[in-house]
Structures are given as structure tokens and as C-alpha cells.
């Protein structure tokens, strides 16, 4: 799959240059002429990398970076790496950029071969990070599901044991007792099936995530909390 790169620059000549050169190298190239358009493109296309000019009208590169890295509205895009371009070769300027979350910083005028090397390095680092994150979250998912299954099994012991005891003591001739027994079985069965359905839905939602990212992590934590709350509440009620 082609890596998708968003170029953000207010100079049309620079946009055309990167579009031509990066497309020849097999990248899918998107472009934006200012910071506001860049934020819209990020939402619409979710690029793999952003090449961002610092000095632009409407919104500077710093402002765009702050929004992407800290605004809750852009939480799912926070892990998109950013390479910042700037004509200012100031150490403090670079430090501020890295503190904001910029992955790399290139000073204009630049050498295109160096830019390509940095692009490939950042994309490679992102894949390594994703792989490690995927492995970590996979292990966490396994642990969460294991704990949840144990919790489910423990929570089923009491109601199923009670149903078994009631069935052994049930007098078939006592119609009122039979009705109460049937109602109890239906109530317990409905609760059990609802809990199983919730587990199934959360697993489906987790698997539907496009890779393991912050949203997948949040979903896993929410799944863990809700399963525990559901079954622990049922146990306390009994």
C-alpha cells in the first residue's frame, strides 16, 4: 500500500514540486495551501505523514501542530508524524518544534535527497512503533479477555447453582412454584445472554479498528471497565 503524504505549503511551486517528485517515488501525495485546509485534509484523508511548512498565512505550522497534537477533536490523528520545514535555522525554534511533537525538522533551502531519506526514516519508525503497539495491545487484549472470561464464569456459578438446586427441589405438582422457577430461569438466562452479547460487541468493535492506535487502547480500557462493572454489579445484587 502506498504511503499517503500530505504536503502543506502556501507556495504553489513547492506543492507542485513535491507532488511530482514524491509521486514518481511511489507515494500518494495530497496537498494543502494553508493550515486550515491542512486540518480539513487530515480529517478527510488521515495521511501517514505530514510535510508542514512553518511560515504560512491563516495558521502557522506551529499552530497546526498544536491542534493536531493536543486538541481532543484530533485525538485519532495525534500519532501522524510531522516533518516541519522552516527558513529559520534557530536551535530554540527547533527545540520548540520537537517539544510540540514534530518528528523531524528540515531547514530551507533543503536537499531533496535528504528530504527523501528523512521521509523514509520517519515512516519506518512509525511502522516499528505501530508493530510494537500492536503487539503490546494484543497482549493486553488477551489478558483482558482472560480476566473477563474468569469473571463471567465466576459470576455464573451462583445463579446456575441456584437454578440446579431449585430444579432438584421443585415439586412439579406445585404450579405456582413451577411458574416462579421458570420466571427465574428466564431472568437469569436473559442477563447471561445480554452479558455475552456485550462481550461479543466489544470484541467486534475492537477488531474493526484500523490497526492498534489510541482509539483501540481507549476501547480496550472501556471494555475492561464495563465488563467488570456489569458482572461485579450482578454479583453484588445477588
Strand content: 5-15%
Silhouette: rod-shaped
The CATH class designation of the largest domain is Alpha Beta
CATH architecture of the largest domain: 3-Layer(aba) Sandwich
Unreliable stretches covering 5 or more consecutive residues: 210-215
Q: CATH H level of the largest domain: which superfamily? A: Response regulator
Total number of distinct structural domains: 2
Q: Helix- and strand-based class?
A: alpha/beta
Number of helices: 7
Order of helices and strands: EHEHEHEHEHHH
Mean pLDDT: 79
- What value does the Rg take, in angstroms? 27 Å
Task: State the helical fraction.
Answer: 55-70%
Number of strands: 5
**What is the rounded distance between the termini?**
53 Å
In terms of quaternary structure, the protein is single chain
Q: Order of strands side by side in the largest beta sheet? A: 2-1-3-4-5
Q: Note the main sheet.
A: 5 strands, parallel
CATH topology of the largest domain: Rossmann fold
Amino acid at each position: 500500500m502506498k504511503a499517503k503524504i500530505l504536503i502543506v505549503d502556501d507556495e504553489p511551486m513547492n506543492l507542485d514540486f513535491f507532488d511530482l517528485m514524491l509521486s514518481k517515488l511511489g507515494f500518494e501525495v495530497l496537498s494543502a495551501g494553508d493550515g486550515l485546509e491542512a486540518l480539513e485534509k487530515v480529517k478527510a484523508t488521515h495521511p501517514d505523514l505530514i510535510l508542514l511548512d512553518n511560515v504560512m498565512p491563516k495558521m502557522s505550522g506551529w499552530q497546526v501542530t498544536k491542534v493536531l497534537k493536543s486538541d481532543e477533536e484530533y485525538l485519532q490523528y495525534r500519532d501522524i508524524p510531522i516533518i516541519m520545514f522552516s527558513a529559520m535555522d534557530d536551535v530554540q525554534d527547533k527545540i520548540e518544534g520537537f517539544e510540540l511533537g514534530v518528528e523531524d525538522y528540515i531547514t530551507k533551502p533543503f536537499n531533496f535527497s535528504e528530504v527523501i531519506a528523512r521521509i523514509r526514516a520517519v515512516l519506518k519508525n512509525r511502522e516499528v512503533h505501530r508493530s510494537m503497539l500492536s503487539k503490546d495491545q494484543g497482549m493486553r487484549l488477551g489478558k483482558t479477555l482472560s480476566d473477563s472470561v474468569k469473571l463471567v464464569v465466576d459470576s455464573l456459578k451462583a445463579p446456575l447453582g441456584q437454578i440446579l438446586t431449585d430444579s432438584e427441589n421443585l415439586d412439579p405438582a406445585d404450579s405456582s412454584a413451577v411458574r416462579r422457577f421458570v420466571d427465574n430461569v428466564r431472568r437469569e438466562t436473559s442477563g447471561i445472554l445480554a452479558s455475552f452479547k456485550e462481550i461479543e460487541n466489544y470484541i467486534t468493535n475492537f477488531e474493526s479498528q484500523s490497526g492498534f492506535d489510541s482509539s483501540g487502547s481507549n476501547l480496550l480500557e472501556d471494555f475492561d471497565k464495563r465488563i467488570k462493572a456489569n458482572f461485579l454489579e450482578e454479583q453484588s445484587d445477588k
